[in-house]
Amino acid sequence: MSEDLRLSVSKTKTFLQCKKQFKFNYIEKLPKKDWDHHTFGKFCHKVLEYFHQQYLEGCLLPYNTVMNDAWKVAWAEYKDKMNPVMKQECWDLINKYLKMVSTKKSQFPANVIGVEKRFEFPVAENIILNGAIDRIQQDDDGIIHVCDYKTAKNKKYLKDDFFQLLTYAYVIVTEDPSVKKVRASYIMLRHDFEYITTEFTLKDIKKVKDKFLDYAEQIKTETDYKATPTALCNFCDYLEHCPEGKGKAFNQNVYGEVAY
After folding, report:
1. Which range of residues forms the domain containing residue 160?
2. Does the bond joining 229 to the residue before it have cis omega, within 30 degrees of 0?
3. Number of structural domains the chain divides into
4. Contact between 56 and 115 (Cβ < 8 Å)
5. Most distant CA pair in the chain: distance in Å?
6. pLDDT digits (tens, 9 = 90+) for 71-81
7. Alpha-carbon distance 124 to 137, whole Å?
8. What are the distances in angstroms from CA 189 to CA 64, 67, 80?
9. Domain assignment of residue 112, yes or no
10. pLDDT at position 158
11. Which of 135, 140, 143, 214 is nearest to 173 (CA)?
């Protein structure tokens, strides 16, 4: 029996963007760097996950009390990696989110039905799709809505790149075939929690399986693993191992510039 090929949105995206980076990460398993922008994103995700999870479990405490607890939980995990600038921006974002939740007139956050929903299932023999959905809610009109938090400063690139959300819609429909349409949004935390939203029909969603099967075949047959140098080389965990990337990269100290 051949070994299972495990696929995720991030894994396939890495393969498509730079096969050499894919090799460093998923085949040679070189250690990753501890980036500020990763920590920033993970911290915000942790706070929001904890906040909504409490209400999913029946919590009746005021929003500000639960958000304060959520901050403490995230801070305990990430405080050693957070500098003062990151801490202040995260604090401002979370307070803004709390204000938004407190003034929203719909059923939100009561309509949130899942946070950090992990999935793992076969799309074909020996091909496993896995990942996690930041938030799932059922909107006031009854439509299931999958959401992914983004801490990127630049939002333009997301408006034509919905494959991550389309994959999450595929997960929803796979688990519940009665669903006929899925709403999906990137939530831009640094842009006043702006939603970049689209909707997927079953026709759209059913194409996802074939895409992953195609990606799986490309990954299985790849042998060269050539580098594809771009400006993103600045944020590559493996830049020191890649002459091609070094030739493209430039020095800068920044966090939160990529989509995590």
Report:
1. 1-28+107-233
2. no
3. 1
4. yes
5. 56
6. 999 999 999 99
7. 28
8. 19, 16, 22
9. yes
10. 75
11. 143
Q: For residue 205, is it within any domain?
A: yes
Contacts of 236 (CB under 8 A, 6+ apart): 18, 21, 242, 245, 249
Query: Kind and range of the H or E element at 219?
Result: helix 207-221
Q: Is residue 198 part of a domain?
A: yes
pLDDT band at 2 (very low <50, low <70, confident <90, very high): low
Give rounded-to-5 percent helix, strand, coil for the chain.
Answer: 50, 20, 30
Query: 3-state DSSP call for residue 215?
Result: helix
pLDDT score of 82: 95
> Please, what is the Cα angle at 124 between 259 and 26, to 5 degrees?
45
pLDDT digits 0-9 by tens, 26-57 = 999 999 998 998 999 999 999 999 999 999 99
DSSP H/E element including 243: helix 243-248
Is residue 99 in some structural domain?
no
Q: What are the residue ranges of helices labelled H in 25-113? A: 36-56, 63-78, 84-103
Would you place residue 254 in the very low, low, confident or very high pLDDT band (cuts 50, 70, 90)? Answer: very low
On whether the CB atoms of residues 206 and 187 are closer than 8 A, the answer is no
Torsional sign, CA 250, 252, 234, 246: positive
Tell me if residue 5 falls in helix, strand or coil: strand
> Do 235 and 37 contact (CB within 8 A), yes or no?
yes
Pairing of strands 144-150, 181-188: parallel
